[in-house]
Amino acid sequence: MSSIPPTPGQHPHYSRATLWLLATIAGVSVANIYFNQPLLDDFRASFPDSAWLIGAVPAATQLGYAFGMFFLAPLGDRFDRRLLILMQLAALGAALVAAAAAPTLVVLIAASLAIGVVATIAQQAVPFSAELAPAAQRGHAVGTVMSGLLLGILLARTVSGFVAEYFGWRAVFGASVVATILLAVVVIMRLPKSRPTSTLPYGKLLVSMWHLALENPGLREASLTGGAMFAAFSIFWSVLTLLLAGEPFHLGPQAAGLFGIVGAAGALAAPLAGKSADRRGPRAVISLSIALVAVAFVVFAFSGRSIAGLVIGVIVLDVGVQAAQISNQTRIYALAPEARSRVNTVYMVAYFIGGALGSVVASLAWHAFGWTGVCLAGLAAVGLAAISHRRGRVGAATQVG
């Protein structure tokens, strides 16, 4: 039986308060995979003998997130999401303690991988919002929860940079332990239980994602497009700290973190993007989003020595990437209502693999070709998204014809 009520009133937990609670859960949990990005220069200072491995910290976190989504997020179709969230919060607290106390960079990388795996709590919150919402409001519901998630992503850099500036990078992870405990208390007190939609054993639950990907070309196209867009996003954010640390800026991690406040424009645009996808269809929003991200990297290419140019580019980049994300998720949640966690897993695994690859490419491009190479790499990722989106539109038109 479907868990989606035809009207909001038929589900006792569909309300603005519940949506914003899910948004808070998503934002607080997902912030943990972005705390390390403004800290790369601090890591390099703490572990000078392993400086060449610094780029592995954000890459390991994002790969861990992809791993956690594949093996943990599908359980939302099978079990109560509230219980899953509480179990992951406990594991997240332990991983954060390990990161805060890491004696070597290798230990920090291992702890970062673990943080990524269990921080997939957000991937229970977003499908839950789609489950609660009626079809006509699904884009808005997803956009509301995603706004919290995106604020977590962006403001994580601001909080991390500020705390590291005054208390050191280890205090960033310590503060997150406290936030994780508080979040667990809120979940126990306020979060309703979800209604499982599948009785498949765990192994078959995982295998079914392969079949979902094979049977849904729209899911494959959305996954490739989303992964390429997030690769572009990560290419910029992974090296921003390094750019600001050098000539002519000489700025520390706090300055890099403040760019997260600028990027919060993307989070504020998320509910609007969801409403637009409800009214006009998500494909049109995605086309515009791809164009915006391409423009952002052109702006970046001419702003390697300009704070004002970087600020403008960040606003355009984040609005474009986040609008595309909302629209893609609105599309995929309509493909298989009984398997929203698994459909979301297929999409988000591709999404964060793209992000991890973007971090690696950014590091290589920065060391080999500098800021110009980073911008060209970002444009290449946007080009891949455009090709995927175009092929999907042509395929859809062919099927209709």
UniProtKB/TrEMBL annotation:
InterPro entries: MFS, MFS_dom, MFS_trans_sf. Residues 15-395 form the Major facilitator superfamily (MFS) profile domain. GO terms for molecular function: transmembrane transporter activity. The keyword Cell division does not apply. Keywords: Membrane, Transmembrane, Transmembrane helix. The keyword Transmembrane applies. Gene3D superfamilies: MFS general substrate transporter like domains. Pfam families: MFS_1. The chain crosses the membrane at residues 17-35, 50-71, 83-102, 108-130, 142-163, 169-189, 224-245, 251-272, 284-301, 307-324, 345-362, 368-387. PANTHER family: MAJOR FACILITATOR SUPERFAMILY (MFS) PROFILE DOMAIN-CONTAINING PROTEIN, TRANSPORTER SCO4007-RELATED. This is Major facilitator transporter. The lineage of its organism: Bacteria, Pseudomonadati, Pseudomonadota, Betaproteobacteria, Burkholderiales.
